[in-house]
Amino acid sequence: MSDAEIRIERLTGALGAEVQGIDLSRSLSNAQVDAIHRAFLDNQVIFFRDQSITPEDHLRFARLFGELDIHPFAAGLDDHPEIMPVVKEAEDHVSINFGGTWHSDVSFYEKPALGSVLYAIEVPDAGGDTMFANMYLAYEALSDGLKDTLDGLQAVHSASRSFGLNSRATRRSKEGGDVSMTVNPSEEAENEVVHPVIRTHPETGRKLLFVNYNFTQRFVGWTAEESAPLLKFLWDHAARPEFTCRFRWRKGSVAFWDNRCTQHLALNDYHGSRREMHRVTICGDKPV
Length: 288
Ligand code: SIN
Hints:
The protein is of the alpha+beta class. Helix content is 22%, strand content 24%. The chain has seven helices and 15 strands. Succinic acid binds next to strand 5, strand 14 and strand 15.
């Protein structure tokens, strides 16, 4: 496939674009990789349709952008631990699905992910869309006064709410969820890291809002109670519809999101149908 055939079709005013003319089962030329990288930075999340890729193809594509992570609490495939299956079975009537609240992946790491590549293996006829939100726009829409306040703040992140011993993952397994997904709640999820509330993207140099519902616990120097109202405002603000796009999956669709400047949420509106996705997460750097 020649480089001239790559087309980028923007999906919404906020973020997201479909990249056409790329076959991810083949080795990509340097020019194709450059075009994909440019589209990724310009659109924050990019989508490829009608792909048919093996686990090796999936890993090869993700490795073009960095080293790969192995999730500490959710098991990967036996022979490819970097590929984490995200599965909800037809009989899983869980009220809390994996990834079902707004987050950026593994912000509880010292060095949160650069991005993730999610491949649709099986999807419901309708439902199971993923929503994405643009954290550059969320930052830019704040008042100058609040920007000034947040610029000086740092926030504590941990995985306790999602993967701690008393977390959503624990409640989900009590509900009989995770039939096909192995999630292991752990005390390790209580480990805390600190990140700036306003982060500068290491490649674009743009400022963005870096707090998320799943993993941000409180502001440094503030109690959890003092932090809660402002965090709630920021989480609601970050998810304003005009900052988002919603992607309708088909079998073979691939999404590649920039975890540094987006958040995402997997909708849980397809009870009685099976959904299986494979996620590979690319390691990132320390937020500044
Ligand atoms: C995730 O949060 O990584 C899962 C997203 C999805 O299943 O759509």
